[in-house]
Please model this.
Amino acid sequence: MKKVSIFCLILAFLMLFSCLSVSAAEENNPAVTSGCHSLDAAMTLSEEEKITETAKAVIVYERNSGTMLYAHNPDDKIYPTSMVKLMTVLVAIENGDLDEKVTVTRKVLNQVPIGILGAGLTAGEEITLRDLLFSTMVESATDSAVVAAAHVGGGIDGFLMMMNEKAQALGCTKTHYGNVHGLHDENTYTTARDIARLTDAALQNETFREMFCTARYTMSATNKRQEAWTITTTNNMMNERNSKYYDKRVTGGKTGATDQGGRCLTLTAEKDGMELLCVVMGAVPTVEANGSLSSYGSFEESKTLLDYAFTNYAFRQVFFDGQSLAQYPVANGANDVVTQAASSVSTVVPKQLEESALRWVYEENSGVLSAPVLKGQELGQVQVWYGTKCLAQTKMVAMNSAEVYQPPVIPEKPVFADSGSWLILIVVLVIVLVAVIVLLGLRAAGIIKHKQKKRKRIRSYDELGRTPTNL
Model:
């Protein structure tokens, strides 16, 4: 029994040591976990599992920092409804002449599904491509989308090929277009992540952004309509006249709805330095007994997501240009090197975040710095981690230079030109030494003292007025 207890104790110790080793490995190599920066992020900054009630797929993405704040089923296959028109507008902008007049033909109008929302285009009507695309985006007019696509692509099939090629180019690998308007089609599908990726890229096009962010637009008169007319966005969160859903934070958006795809909305919203891209797909509306909608589902779910994001997260500067980071010794260098942030970086962090919860990770380009190191030289990167998520990163550069260490120069002792100089010095020293010895010998023999007494006797004779007889 005693042996069994000892064995269990040893086994427990080994298991504990193993766990500690794994933890230490992850601590030393934080890159084993994924961050939340990019539309492809495997995790989100938010820890919430479910915020919305009915939506099939949801994404909240902060564009300025590239932070995936929240996602629900982002990669599930969904039917895009009128989100298809986002791609229709983008491809037409990139490949067409916006000021060119397009003549509406009966052949093209016959390809428009009956009984759907449209701009009321008629055969023979001449209208600019720009107005067709504003109508497609703002009021989600299906006839405008079909006419624009047929004109730019030389036919619907040609334009569909352009749409699918653009989707692949943008990395929307789980998206396929079977029509240009978004009415239900088993061959037309996408994901919330692909819609976010498409919208994020398209917003970099100024013309697309203008159309996406327009709440009211005045259409020019045509040969069939003598007066200009105004269209209003189907995104009620942008419509100031809709008191129930209007939200001043919302800056742009596109709606969509089908029985199979549910209520959908892709929008942008701004507040306190953050620009959110919010995608809500497949929300369920509330229908009253008389057939009217008491709630759309997509607007309510979007407001919930915006409230959550703006209430719990803030845009904060993490790195400052020129901010000193760390000091490193330099092998064979005259001095150490101090690193600084190469650029300013801001990101989204939880509002209640404590600084102690952040972890700074330095990744040097090489294990040991060796001289010389030049000022401004890139030396690696630094990251700020929050738990298992990388919040931000920037390059580290040298704040100062480090030259190769040069030992101090010690003055050399003077040397004579040749061995003859040494010989002269030795002779001089010998002569001096001999003279000293002779002098000491004479003094010892009393010779020097005798001379001194003789001088005294001579002076005494002089004093008596005598003249010495023997000098």
Observations:
- Confidence is low (pLDDT under 50) at residues 1-33, 450-471.
- The CA atoms of residues 137 and 211 lie 6 Å apart.
- The longest strand covers residues 262-271.
